[in-house]
Each structure stands twice: as C-alpha cells, then as structure tokens.
Amino acid sequence: MSNLMSQSTAVIVMNIRSLPRRLWMSLAMVFASAVVVAILLAFLAMAKGFEATMQSAGSDDVAFFMRTGSAAELNSSASREQVNLIENAPGILKDEQGPLVSPELYVIVDGVKKSTQQEANIPLRGLSQRGVDMRNGFTLTAGRMFTPGTDELIVGAGILREFDGFDLGQEIRFGKYTWKVVGVFSTGGNVFESELWADAKVIQNLYNRGSSYQTVRARIGSSDDLTAINEYLESEPRLTHEVQTESAYFATQGKSLEYMAIFGWVISSIMALGALAGALNTMYTSVSDRSMEIATLRAIGFSSLSAFIGTMVEAMTLAVIGSLVGALAAFIFFDGMNASTLGGSFTQVVFSFQLTSELFIQGITLALIIGFVSGFFPAWRAARVPVIVAFQSAR
Amino acid sequence: MKDLYLVYKNLTRKKMRLFLTTFAIFIAFLIFGAIMTLRGALNSGVEMSADNRLVVVHKTNFTNPLPYSYVNKTQAIEGVKQVTHANWFGGYYQEPANQVVTFAVEPESYLAVYPELVIEPEQRKAWLNNQASILVGERIALANGWKVGDRIPLSSNIFSHKEGGQTWDFVIEGIFRGAEQKTDTSYLLFHYKYFKETQSWGGDSIGWLILTTEDAAMNESVAKAIDNNFANSNAETDTSTEQAFNKAFIEQIGNIGLIIFGVVFMAFFTILIVVGNTMVLAIRERTAEIAVLKTLGFASIRIFKMVLIESCLLAFLGGLLGLGGAYLLIQGASENLARFLPNLVLDQNILLQALGYMLLLGLITGIAPAISALKLNIITAFNRG
Amino acid sequence: MSNQNLFELNQVAKRFTKGKETISIFQDLNMQIKDGDFLAIMGPSGSGKTTLLNLLGGVDQPTEGQITFDGQRIDNLSESQLAKWRANNIGFIFQFYNLMPMLNAARNVELPLLLTNLSRSERQKQVKIALELVGLSDRADHMPSEMSGGQQQRVAIARAVVSDPKFLLCDEPTGDLDRQTADEILQTLQLLNEKFGKTIVMVTHDPSAAKFAKQTVHLNKGEFVKAEELSA
Predict the structure, then answer these.
(1) Shortest alpha-carbon distance between residue A6 and chain B (Å)
(2) Taking CB atoms and an 8 Å limit, are B297 and C57 in contact across chains?
(3) Which of A209, A239, A269 is the last residue of a domain?
(4) Which of A244, A369, C18, C193 has its CA 20 to 30 Å from the CA of residue A156?
(5) CA nearest A309: which of A30, A1, A45, A40?
(6) Check: complex ipTM more than 0.85
(7) Residues A205 and A323 in one domain
(8) What are the pLDDT digits (tens) for A29-71?
(9) Do A121 and B252 touch (CB under 8 A)?
C-alpha cells in the first residue's frame, strides 16, 4: 500500500512538473471549470438572495389574512366590516387600546428605475403605527415617521437605492396627488424595504377605497393559535378569508424565483457537458504527451495503477483549481449584487445576491464531477500504455 | 477543390478529439440558439406591436382602473380611429398556479384594433353572439388541451361571481391564431358586458384603453390630446405607444434579465475560447507535416486556406448541429411554456447571428495557426523534426 | 549520356546570423551537376551538406552567387515561384519518410499531383504506375502506421517520382533503415537513375550507400575536399 502511495506520489510529481509543457491546454481546463462553477453560483446566489429577502420578512407570530384564492396581497380585499370581524377572532393579542391588528392597503404606483430610467411598479402600503410595530427590525434611518392624516410617506431603503426621486424631503407625484418623503426606513434588507409606507386612511381617501382594506395582519402568541382562528373563519359566513402565518406567506412568495435556481442548474449542467469535452481533450493530450514517460516508469516497475492515479489527480486538481477560481470570481462579482425584479404581487422586489457556503459546496461538487469524468477515461488509457512504447524511438 | 480530401483527412484524423470538439461547439450553439430564442420571445411584444396602436392607462399605475366613460370620450378625440378596452381578470384554470392570461373586452372593437388575431368566420360569429363564451388563443388552447365546444371553469384571483365563488363557467366558441408566427396567442378573451353583469363588485370601470390612430405620424399629438383631456380629473391618464408600453413592461423583469443573458453569453464565449484553444493546438501539432507539404511545392497561401477551411468546417459542423439541437429543443419546449411565453421562434435573425459567430470562431481559431503555417520556415521546421 | 549541366552553382556563399555572430557555411562554392548523374555527397555533420541540399532543393536561398537549373536562375525566385519550381522539377526523399499519417499510401503518393491540373482519374493512373515502380501496388490502401520503414520509404520514393520530375533529392534516405532494406532502396534509386534518367543527389554519411552512386563528393567545412570518379 505504502508502495503504491510512493509510486503514485512520484507519478503525480512528474505530471505536475510537466504541466508547463501543456500550459495552454491545462489553463483551458481550469478556465472551463471556473466558468461553469461561476455561472452555477450566479444563478443559485440570485435565487438564494431573493428567497432570503422574502423569507426574512415574515414573522411566525403574525397571522396574515387574505381573501381566499387571491394568492398575493394585491388581489386581496377586506371591507371595514370584515376587518372588525377579524379583530374578534380568537388568539389575537390585545393591549390597552384593543386587539393588535393591522388592516392594510396595497396600491401600486409608478417609480422611475435608476438603471433603465423606465417606470416600474412600486407598492405603496397604507398602514398605521400598529402595522409598523409588527415589522421586526424596523428602524428609521433618516427623517421621521409620517404623521397620520397627512400626505406624508416614508420610503424603504431598497426603493431609495434603485429608484429616482425618493430622497428625503422630496415631493413625488403619483397621478393627481403629491406626497412628501419625510423618512427613510430599513427592515434589515427584507422585502418591506422595497415599499413606500403611508397612512392607510389617507390612501383610502385618495384612491377611492372608501373604508375598505386589502389584507389584515394580527399579532398572535404562536402559530398554534391558527387552528382556532381557522375554525372561526369557517364558522363566520361574512368572512371570505384564509389565514396563515406571515412567514408562511412570504416563504411561498420566495419560491417564485426558484425557477432561477432550476434554470441555473440546467444551464450549468449543459455548460458542464461542453466544459467536459474541453477537459477530456486536455487530459487525453496530457496522457499522449506523457506516454513515453509513463511507459518508461512502467518498464522500470511502476504499477499501472499509479499511472491511473497520477492522471486522476492531475484532472481533479485542475478542476478544483478551476472551481476555486470560479467561486472566487462569483463571490467578487455577484455576492451582494443589487438586483430587482417583479415579485408575486406584481411589484418590484429589490434584493441582493447571496453566496452562502452551502452554495459554494454545490459549485465545488460540480467541479469535482467534471474533474472525475474528465480524468477517468484518460487515466484508464494511461494505465494501459504498453511498456513497449518506452523502447520505440521517439521522433 | 482537390484539397478538400486533405482537409477532411486532417479533420478526422483523431476521432475522439473531433467528437469532443464538435460536441463542445454543439453545446455552445445549443445554448446560444435557445437563449436567443427565449430572449426573442420575451421581446416579441415589443417587436410585434403595431406602430399606430396606443395604450391609455391610469397615470398612477396601469393596475389602477379607469372610468368606463373614457371609452366614448377618447373615441371623440381627433385622430383616433378605433378605441377598445380591456380588464385584467386574474384568471387561472383549476388551480391558482395554472395562471391563464384572461381579458374581459368589448369583442367587436377589440378584434378591430388587433387585426393580427385570425379567426374562422363562423367561430367569430359564434363568439360574438354568445355572451357567456370565450375566445381562446391557439397556444393556450394547445397547452391545456382545449377544443372548440369545450366547457371550462375559469377562476379569478381577484373577482367573485355574483352567485358566489370565484369560478365562471365558459364555453369555448372559437380559437384564434396569429397572423404571424410570433404573434402572441397565449391568452383568452371574453365579453366585458358579461363580466360586468356577473361579477359581484359591480361598478363600471375598465383596466385600460387600446386605440388605433388614423396615422402613426399622429401618435404623439393624439397621445397628448388624450392626456390633456383627462388632466385634473380623478383619473389622469398616461398614453404611450403600444411598443413603449410593452417595452416598459418587459423591463419590469429588471436587471435580473440582463444578468441572466450576460451570464449565459459569457458561458457561450467561454466554450468558444476553450474550444478555440484546442483547435489552435491541434493544428500546431502538425507543423512538421505542413513543412513537408511546403517542400513538395504546395504554395503557402494554399496551405493557409486549407487550415482556415478546416477550422471553419469544424466550427460549422458543431455550430449547425447545435442550432439544430436548439431548434428541436424549442419545438419541444414551446408547447410546455405556452402558459408563460409567447411563441418561441428561432428566426432568421438568430440564425444569421449564429452563422456569423460560427464563421468568427472558425476564422479566429484558424487564423493564428494558418498564419504560422504561412510563415513557417521549412528549414527550421525540419531541424525541429 | 548527355553532358549538359543540369545544375550550376556559381560563386555561391551562404551565411547565417545567429544573434550577433555571423556563421559562414560556404564561400565561393562552385559546382556542376550533369544531367543524368547520380551524385553522393558525404561529409561529417556541420560540413554544410544539409545546407547544400536545401539550396539545391530550392527551400533555401544563397546569400551570394548564382544557382542555375536547366538554364534558369533559381536563386532570385520569390517564395511562391520557388514552390512552383519545386513542384515541377524536384522529387524529395527524406530520412524519416515524412508521409502524412492520416493518408493511405496511394493518397500520399498522389499529393504532388494535386499541384498539377490532372484529373482525378489521370492522377490515379499515375499513382498506380509509381506504386508499381517501387513494388507496392498491393499496399495502396495501407496507412503509413501499418507499414515497415522500408515500405514507407518506398512510398516516399513513389511520391517523389509520381509527377515525373527531372531531379531527385535524397536526404539520408537509408539513415533509418537496416542494411538489407537500405540496399533495396538504393537499388531502386539506381534503377530510377539508369532506366528513367533521373538525376539524383543523395546526402549520406554511409559509405556503403555512397557506393550506389556514380560519383561521390566529400564536403568538409563548406568545401569540396576531393571528387573521385567511381566506376559504375
């Protein structure tokens, strides 16, 4: 065994020493696996970033009410009467001012994207201080809270970053009405930062919503309380709503970019096949390049297994170097990259690419597969180089 | 070309390498063809828009409704030829994930404004006469396996039926095709009047207006006249050409679209670089043979051409196979993606671009070794051997 | 036998520059090769015999002096003119045969004919004749890797004569072969010289090979040491 080890080590060292002779071929293989890994990671980081932005928005102790079948906040509705009924649902926490419930409105307005200078959909959320208090991690990073009953609004940090005209103190026109930006808020990077917030009553007024709302959030003790709430909803014919935890709602929304991850895997797998063809070329060249050396070693007593191992190690090494380069490139170029796209509610979601260690592992696994396949067949050939080659004159 | 046999023999001398290289090029152009087609499908709304069609939406955002009275008011404006309107129904079939793009429209005027929707005359008549019927696009019908005469339940994630629930029962009276391959037929239409009468919300509002102008040159003045007409009302409008509207809509997908296409193009070029490197090295290996040919009296320029032809042949072999693969892939995917995307067409434009890249690949990978073959000094080549 | 000179070298000089140094291979070299001759050139390595061969074969050009072939100056031809001239007048035979590995014997022999205007069938006819001449008709379909060294060299000879050039240039044609095979090759060359009137120049360092030639010259440090007549 130790004999095989030392033999293989000798072959590996020999292979590495002869690498400069095949510099361009070897670099091509490193390059190919680097790009495959970088592309895979780009897609995965995109899907991951979007998912994280959504998921971190939801909390487990907030019950989220939507009209049955509406799928997204935008499509839901709840009349004043229905909101009152929800307030009476069991399990909802109360304080001295009454139940902790936040009926909210969700209006889509146009904003001008910095990147394209084109109009894109932004949600203008109408809520009250109660609703604001329900958002974990809410902080005002500049300015102050909007004053209820006025046409003031506060703007999410993501909107400020991606759209023109939302700076503190500026006035913005949506259709006929003018709003004033009095504050900038952060919610720790989640989807709420892609929103504008204003007083719900003012929005009802300006957008002809009468006294109706769209969704209702309510503070509950724990997600176990949902069972009782569900029973209540079913027994109350005037309510056409369904309830879930806020985190469950956003988890579903977060899946809407999951196709990106799938697309990423498909693209990089196909790419990997292409890269594999290049890598196999490299390794076959490497073996034919060294057939004299391999045969000579075999002639003086090295086992064919050591020739096999030597070639495998060379291929795996090149692939892994490539994957590290690719992962590093992906990290430099994509990690934290700001992006925005249409979310489930037909509005822009601002998010950042996230390259987690778990994704790194996926990338390196793919590279190892490339390395293994591209090493195996040429290594097989190397192991079978006949000793007699050593005695033929090389020209 | 007497030399073609030589070129062919050079190309096929190492079967494994030929296969691997061709395969890599195949993959590159498969990706290229598929992605360009996908991109073309996303942009087809912009490409296929008529140049005299305008879209009128609520100034705050196109998801906000407009009063029904705007239809007649707009029709009265000078330069306007034909106005029609549509409402977003938020439709889905059987389960919420299976979304079906559904518009409630005024049938006669809608078909007049969209002449590219082609229907059999009897089907057209049947649909116009039956208020509770739908007209279905060919692609969406194909995706769901619908035929004329089928009764289908269609649900809305926004509206409720007067008689309870959120599901409407419709009979399919007609299926429309596109006048052109790229015309979008992945949606369905039903009567606005029926929609108004059966939904519980009530109210007489429309989603947006679409109109044609007498002449595309009048677009700007008509758009201005409409917006001015509704200025300072409760529902101010924003009028733009269909093309601009579609473009803005596509761009809502945002820079992730840009990033994806960027990344995929990077992939395409990477494969080409890797393959090119192999091709260059493959020809380098033959320096001694080229020297022999030259000694025998083959002119340098002739060898130069042979090398270039060889690399171009290889590029076109893999590239055309890849495009063929992309074509088959698209044929297969087109039906499955009917719900999300308009028709996937690998059009002439993409074909020409791909051919251009193949030629470029062939020339770039061939030119370096071809030049060195051209300059190859027979004497030094022999001293190496 | 004609006494006309096929080749005439007049005051030929050849120098190479290597970095700052200039190396002189020949100075004032004069030489005549008669039509129908079979000349062996011998000499130690570094004597300039390969350079001489290159000059005669038109793959290299003299620094000074004139080279005339069949009454035509070739030292002042352009590269493409030289290529054409080589194709029309010279057959090459190399030490390591230099066959194209991806072509079979017949296709290898056909190569020089690609430089002519002959039709495919005419080319095939001539290839057949050339292969018969070297006794390899039955190997026409074989690849170089499937043939012995002697067979490969005979394919190379067939390639050299297929376009019927006046002049054959052989660079150590038997250097890679065993004695018996070498003798067979040399006999073939002799046959070409005597029966088909090819003028042959052969560079070799093997005295027994030189014996097959009509005359032998010795080259040393760029000068002919002594030319001795050999009785054929």
Answers:
(1) 32
(2) no
(3) A239
(4) A244
(5) A1
(6) no
(7) no
(8) 898 889 889 988 988 898 888 888 888 888 899 999 998 888 7
(9) yes
